[in-house]
Write a structure and sequence with these properties.
It is built from 23 helices and 25 strands. It is of the alpha+beta class. Among the domains are: 30 residues; 193 residues, Biosynthetic peptidoglycan transglycosylase-like (Penicillin binding protein transpeptidase fold, Orthogonal Bundle); 229 residues, Beta-lactamase (3-Layer(aba) Sandwich). Keywords: Carboxypeptidase, Glycosyltransferase, Hydrolase, Membrane, Multifunctional enzyme, Protease, Transferase, Transmembrane, Transmembrane helix. One of its GO terms (molecular function) is serine-type D-Ala-D-Ala carboxypeptidase activity. Pfam families: Transgly, Transpeptidase.
């Protein structure tokens, strides 16, 4: 036992160095793991931060820097120039740096980047100083951007977003730009791209434009004081505004002059001379004539200026605001669908004062001191493509920039073919020869104070039985309202939306007023033209488009129109509807017969439309190739002038003739019918095949039917009836009626209609042609072979 202890201690001592080595190795391993973990964290952080900072960095394309102030041009379909954008402002890019002049170059170098010719795109010292300031304020506050960085910002980041990530991306792209372009080229691009705010209302881009508008001289002829004044503005055009805050500009101008003196660009004498120069007295006070749109087709350019940024944004993967800035300066080539000749002609018609009544003045019950002109909106589209061929958005763009081709108004009866007759034909509810009854009817209306609606026709009369063709031709309201009531206004609204009439609101889907255009929402001429073009195009709707294709400044195509089409009506439905709408023009009783009187033997189909108190007047007409929509009215709705010379409802028709007449008469086109549509002579009171009596009574007409829908029975509604008059009232003659008082007439058996006291004065006019139900009070049996009570022929009516 005594020896056991010492042996144990000896063993512990022997193993002690190994234990220390193990602990040392363990500590080393832990330290190494921590170091490696730290390195991994740093690498991961660096990779993550780099990924974040460089995410979505745009590729540097020299085409973006070729000419930062190039105008984007708009062309017609034949390649002729239509114009360029007013939003671009006045741009006068310099071709070479020497055109800027020494004073102006020195002023900008002194103000913005004194080491421009010595750094490699970024200024590390300035960046560290700016970063310290930004960290102290926890936001991007102070600037360290070189001229190269500012040029990159103007070209690649037009939204001018101020974030740390964007700043890093600017620096990386600046290094690349310096490697790929010379200092002189970068400086020239910078001077051409600068924005100087608005002077006399004109947006100015580039030093040459600023020099001419502000001092009335070219940039290379500016004095040092004038050059320093110009260089003061781009830093903050709103704050350094010569028109609003000239003292702000003078303060910065003096600072720039001091920097020019400090850097040796100005000697003592030149510096003192520049300080003493009264630059505010040298400002140009006359305005340079500047058209809002540099184009003879300003309404076209205005529409393109709204459409093109969306296409650029989609193509480049940038925001809409960035795309808008790029459109204004990147030299895009925009090729439209506009027919240059048609556009020129439609504008001349819109500008011709002879086509419109005199302007309203104070003595015509208006409060405005200035005369108010009646306005116009006209659009022509190509039926099978939807391409917009001509636009007249108003009468004078300089006086009113409102584009009436895009302004929504109620369409009145111009909606009837689209939301009533077209859908009813499509679903087999009617044929053109179906009989509708134009009689007074009262409908429930929760929005009315009386909770009822008693609609009227435009002539404040009711006409009785007629075909759907005649009801549409004469634009009677009650047949359309009752037909929509039977099929449901939801169906009518559905077809309106399918035809691109997106201004029709959901509330209109529960409103019978939709049948006659009495809607909460509205339509514009462009939408209406495209909707009618679908009828002309065999029932296929093509979304209206104005831009065919776009190219960037190097000729690379960034957009090409892809037709967006879908079928709304069957071909047979569209063909039948066209035959009905042709009657609106060709029939002497049609509401647009003026066109047939003017364009003889021309194939035109179309529909008129007016709103309450004739505040709006429409005509939409089409040929096999073109559809034109024309609207007239006042910006603030009021009754149109109506006189012998200026019939309000006829003005859109006259505009149609003026604009499309020459083309229609030259082309001499004709509509064609599908092989399964055939003509039949029918009775216009029963819808059945016409009998000799129907024809003798002038109640027969040719109508068209899809095979299988034509009538097969002969009408027996018309009869030879012996009548007489008692106290002016037609009655059936009897055996006791004096023979000298008896007349033989062809009358028809009209279905009974209840007439209450309220509607009694609105009895349908065709009651005068109906077989009387009363007999001669002198007694006896009626001489006619058929008693009225035994006649049961009832005209077919649409089923719900």
């Amino acid at each position: 036992m005594a020896n056991k202890g010492p042996r144990s201690n000896s063993t512990l001592q022997r193993h002690h160095p190994d234990a220390r080595q193990k602990r040392a190795r363990k500590v080393l391993q832990i330290r190494l793991a921590i170091a490696l973990g730290g390195i991994a964290v740093i690498i991961g952080f660096t990779i993550g931060m780099s990924t974040y900072l460089l995410k979505d960095i745009p590729a540097l394309r020299l085409s973006d820097f070729v000419d930062l102030s190039a105008a984007s041009l708009v062309y017609a379909s034949d390649g002729s120039l239509l114009g360029r954008f007013a939003s671009e402002g006045d741009r006068r890019p310099l071709i070479a740096l020497k055109e800027a002049g020494n004073s102006l170059v020195q002023a900008f170098l002194s103000a913005e980047d004194k080491d421009f010719y010595h750094h490699f795109g970024i200024d590390p010292v300035a960046i560290l100083r700016s970063a310290w300031d930004d960290l102290n304020h926890r936001s991007i506050r102070s600037g360290a951007s070189t001229i190269t960085q500012q040029t990159v910002k103007l070209a690649m980041f037009p939204s001018q977003e101020r974030t740390f990530r964007r700043k890093v991306q600017e620096m990386i792209l600046s290094l690349e730009l310096e490697h790929r372009q010379s200092k002189q080229q970068i400086l020239l691009e910078y001077l051409n791209a600068l924005y100087f705010g608005r002077v006399h209302g004109v947006p100015l881009y580039g030093v040459e434009s600023a020099a001419i508008h502000i001092f009335g001289r070219h940039a290379k002829f500016l004095t040092p004081a004038q050059a320093a004044t110009i260089a003061s503005i781009p830093n903050n055009p709103s704050y350094f505004s010569l028109e609003k805050y000239p003292h702000h500009v003078l303060c910065r101008q003096r600072w720039i002059l001091s920097k020019m003196h400090e850097l040796g660009y100005l000697n003592d004498h030149a510096y003192q001379k520049a300080l003493a120069e009264p630059v505010l007295q040298e400002l140009r006070h006359d305005h340079i004539l500047y058209a809002p749109y540099e184009s003879n087709s300003p309404y076209v350019i205005a529409q393109v200026s709204h459409l093109a940024p969306r296409l650029i944004a989609q193509s480049e993967g940038i925001s809409l605001s960035e795309a808008q800035i790029m459109l204004e300066s990147r030299g895009y080539r925009i090729y439209t669908s506009i027919d240059a000749n048609l556009e020129r002609h439609i504008e001349q018609v819109a500008e011709n004062k002879k086509n419109f009544p005199p302007a309203l003045t104070r003595n015509q019950h208006i409060a405005d001191s200035l005369p108010i002109d009646e306005q116009v909106g006209m659009v022509i589209v190509e039926n099978h493509t939807g391409r917009i061929l001509a636009i007249a958005g108003g009468r004078n763009f300089a006086q009113s920039q409102v584009d009436h081709t895009l302004t929504r108004r109620q369409a009145g009866s111009a909606l009837k073919p689209l939301v009533v007759y077209g859908p009813a034909l499509e679903h087999g509810l009617i044929t053109p020869g179906s009989i509708l009854d134009d009689v007074a009817h009262e409908y429930a209306d929760a929005n009315s104070p009386t909770h009822t609606w008693f609609p009227m026709n435009w002539d404040r009369r009711f006409h009785g039985l007629m075909t759907a063709r005649d009801a549409l031709m004469r634009s009677y309201n009650l047949p359309a309202i009752e037909l929509l009531n039977q099929m449901g206004p939801q169906m009518g609204a559905h077809y309106a939306w399918e035809l691109g009439l997106t201004g029709i609101e959901r509330a209109d889907a529960n409103n019978l007023g939709l049948a006659i255009g009495g809607t909460q929402g509205g339509v514009n001429p462009e939408e209406l033209a495209a909707a009618y073009a679908a009828i002309a195009n065999g029932g296929i709707y093509a979304e209206p488009t104005l831009i065919d294709r776009m190219e960037d400044s190097l000729g690379k195509e960034i957009y090409r129109r892809e037709p967006r089409v879908h079928r709304v009506f069957r071909r047979e439905t569209a063909a039948l509807l066209t035959t009905m709408l042709k009657q609106v023009v060709q029939n002497p009783f049609g509401t647009a017969h003026l066109i047939a009187n003017t364009l003889h033997n021309a194939e035109v189909a179309g529909k008129t439309g007016t709103t309450d108190q004739n505040k709006d007047a429409w005509f939409v007409g089409y040929t096999p190739t073109y559809t034109m929509s024309a609207w007239v009215g006042y910006d603030l709705p009021r009754a149109l002038i109506n006189s012998r010379r200026y019939r309000e409802t006829l003005r859109p028709q006259k505009l149609f003739v003026e604009v499309l007449g020459p083309s229609i008469e030259q082309r001499k086109e004709h509509f064609t019918l599908p092989a399964n549509i055939h003509p039949y002579v029918i009775c216009t009171k029963s819808g059945l095949l016409a009998s000799p009596l129907c024809k003798a009574a002038h109640d027969a007409e040719v109508d068209y039917f899809i095979s299988g829908t034509e009538p097969t029975a002969i009408c027996h509604s018309h009869q030879l009836i012996f009548t007489t008059r008692v106290h002016g009232i037609r009655v059936l003659a009897t055996e006791f009626t004096p023979i000298t008082e008896i007349k033989t007439e062809i009358l028809f058996n009209r279905p009974h209609i209840p007439v209450d006291a309220k509607k009694g004065k609105y009895a349908p006019l065709d009651l005068e042609e109906a077989i009387p139900t009363e007999i001669d009070p002198r007694g006896g049996f009626p001489l006619s072979e058929l008693q009225p009570s035994s006649i049961t022929v009832t005209p077919p009516s649409p089923s719900p």
